[in-house]
Amino acid sequence: MALVKCSECGSDVSDLAKSCPKCGAPVAVEAPKKRASGCTVAILVGVGIFILALIFSSGRTPSDTQTASSTGSSATSSTSGNPAHAGLLALSMTERNATLAKLMQSSGERCRSVTRSMYQGQDADNNAYWSLACANRREYQVMIRADASGSTRYLDCAAVKALIGRSECWKAF
Ligand SMILES: [Zn+2]
User: Fold this and answer.
1) Higher pLDDT residue, 134 or 42?
2) Residue 108, SS3?
3) What is the whole-number distance in angstroms between the Cα of residue 34 and the centre of ligand 1?
4) Can you give the pLDDT at residue 54?
């Protein structure tokens, strides 16, 4: 509770009082402004989508992925131009999961072992997408780039889902 000056007579009035006890003038107290929390959330989601677009700025569009899946039925064409992905595909499931676990560990993720992995498909630039689940139940989508070193990028499936309400993990292109 605080005291404010009455605008009419100048006497001290509690800011909780509706009117001045001396002259009866209404006490004008500024209502605390409501924070526009909904607006803040919308901005955060917008920023998140922008970051996602930056991460996957490989020009992947629905028409591109359709082309990739329609031509990617045979093993030769689905791995063309992406040696790192081809190598991963040639491994046994056990070896592949071990390789993916090492990849996540080297990226700083706590992934003791990979319990499940799935090849999703390739985009028009021959970048390959894999979904994987770690022993601690964290799930990631890994992009293996079609460059000489087979550099990788990854997304946390849960984080993406929390951000935009859905994730592309575990979906074949
Ligand atoms: Zn007054």
Assistant:
1) 134
2) coil
3) 29
4) 62
Distance 13 CA to ligand 1 centre (A): 8
Round to whole Å and give the CA distance between 59 and 53.
9
Distance CA(109)–CA(111), nearest Å, equals: 6
Using a cut of 0.70, tell me whether the model's pTM lies above it: no
Residues 6+ apart with CB under 8 A from 39: none
Distance, CA 16 to ligand 1 centroid (Å)? Answer: 14
- Cα separation, 24 vs 138, in Å, equals 65
Long-range Cβ contact pairs of 131-136 (< 8 A, separation 24 or more) = 131/157, 131/169, 131/170, 131/171, 132/97, 132/100, 132/104, 134/101, 134/104, 134/109, 134/110, 135/111, 136/110, 136/111, 136/112
- Chain segment 84-129, per-residue pLDDT in tens: 999 999 999 999 999 999 999 999 999 999 999 999 999 999 999 9
Ligand 1 center to 12 CA (angstroms)? 8
Residue 45: φ, ψ to 5°: -60, -40
